[in-house]
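name: query_chain
kind: protein
chains: 1
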Amino acid sequence: MKSTREKILMSLLKKPQSTVSDLAEAVKINNISVRHHLSNLQADNLITAEEERHGVGRPRLVYSLTEDGMEKFPTRYWRLANRILGQVRNSLTPQQLKDLFSSIASDIAKDHKKNVSQLSFEEKINYVNQLLNEEGFEVELEKKDSHYVLHEVNCPYFQVVQNHPEVCTFDQVLISEMLSIPIEKINCIVSGAKQCSYIIPLINSMEKV
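structure:
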């Protein structure tokens, strides 16, 4: 049986921009209880609220799912991605497919490089960490005497890269482009490792690259 929290999320999936009264009716609880659950869901960044005008008087709040909220529901994007890449593979050579993902990563890096142009090297690495998190990677950094080791403890594209390892090019190129240095991949989840790991040569934190 679904919890009240899950029922509210499901209601917002079916009917975005619902009011408290809409949700109370859908979930069969009173408005006060709905507001309590909505506050907790907002704190967890699963829903968002915005004001909506409806005639005279004060605007009312309407609620919708955030991207994090949408991720609570089963998705099959990877199946579609696998089918699309299967079709693309029939038209491109393996190298061309690899170059395609490199180009995508380069475009993303280009959008962000202006934000890191004046940062120290260590600040750039922290920025890359944040950027990878936004892309769905959980990242751990390990600092050695002459280099960093960046560990990706998960792969958000795992269901796709098993059939299309060319996708693995994406994050390596993104990291390298953002830091403006070559990096070395030493572990890969797809090859059976527990995590993907990259060696990043250490540049003096006061040096701009």
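note: Residues 67 and 167 are 23 Å apart (CA to CA).
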